[in-house]
Amino acid sequence: MSRISLLFQFLRFLPWTLRFNFHYLPFSQAIKLPILLYKPKLLTLNGIIKISGGVKFGMIKLGFNQVSIYPNSGITWSNSGTVIFKGRCNIGNASAISIGEKGILTIGDNMRATSALKLVCYHRIDIGEQTLIGWENIICDTDFHSVMTTNGKTKGYDSIIIGPHNWLAMQSLILKGTQTPPFTVVGARSMLNKNYITHGEKILLAGSPATLKCRDIYLDRQNDKIIYES
User: Fold this and answer.
1) CA distances for 203 relative to 27, 35, 48, 227, angstroms
2) Closest Cα to residue 137, out of 101, 105, 159, 112?
3) How far lies 130's CA from each of 62, 113, 183, in Å?
4) pLDDT (average), residues 65-94
5) Strand, helix or coil for residue 197
6) 157 to each of 80, 124, 153, how far by Cα in Å?
7) Rounded to whole angstroms, how far apart are CA atoms 92 and 21?
8) Which residues 6+ apart lie within 8 Å of 230 measured at CB?
9) Are the C-beta atoms of 61 and 91 separated by less than 8 Å?
10) Confidence band (pLDDT; 50, 70, 90) for 11?
11) Which of 170, 177, 179, 157 is nearest to 102 (CA)?
12) 21, 28, 102, 202: most buried, per Cβ within 10 A?
């Protein structure tokens, strides 16, 4: 996205950006406008937002168009809990974030979700630094319903801990109880629902449910450009 295009989109939704920053942040942070919004649908503005570390203009971008094959529909926001940004963050177009009253969402530095992310946090979700999330990922820490078994009523929710330097490929489903180690690659259309930490770092998980497919593999976001041959 060019600087001119980004400036136009910023100015177009400046009133929403101003409202959002000054609603959630202390004046000393809000005045710097660290959070920029594009086409926001602000359903619930309860809860709190915290930014740890240094605060800079535009360090957090929500809803800006990143992937042209998805609707340029901005971001839907509903927050009744706590969101903690530990640095830069970019969540792209056609995405939706829903935080329940007791939910705590923590996002590490330089997390990027390209488009159509659906994130639901009613308990706890931690996303590590330098994590890349592909198209149409769903991350949800609750079943929304508990069920009865011979052992009683199920809990129905659990934490999700996504390690640093992870890459969640397109259309992955990350469910309650998921924990991934650093430098994990999750194959497209995979479903994760358990603790994978014991597999160690630099692994490929794929399948539904996901299993270990490969070791000594990881994404280097500074060196991941594909050179297409004619």
Assistant:
1) 43, 33, 35, 24
2) 112
3) 17, 11, 10
4) 97
5) helix
6) 17, 9, 12
7) 18
8) none
9) yes
10) confident
11) 157
12) 21
Residue 4 is predicted with a pLDDT of 73
Residue whose C-alpha is closest to residue 108's, from 180, 33, 178, 161: 161
**Secondary structure string (H, E, C) spanning 128-161:** CCCCEECCCCEEECECCCCCEECCEECCCECCEE
Please state the φ and ψ torsions of residue 68, each to the nearest 5 degrees.
Answer: -70, -20
Q: Are 43 and 16 in contact (CB under 8 A)?
A: no
Q: How far is residue 99's CA from residue 160's CA, in Å, rounded to a whole number?
A: 14
DSSP labels, 103-124: -EEEE-TTEEE-S--EEEESSE
Q: Cα separation of 113 and 118, whole Å?
A: 10
Q: Is the pLDDT of residue 2 over 70?
A: no
- Alpha-carbon distance of 5 to 204, in angstroms, equals 37
Question: Taking the model in full, what pTM does it have?
Answer: 0.94
The predicted pLDDT at position 12 comes to 85
Q: What angle do CA 142, 206, 92 make, to 5 degrees?
A: 60
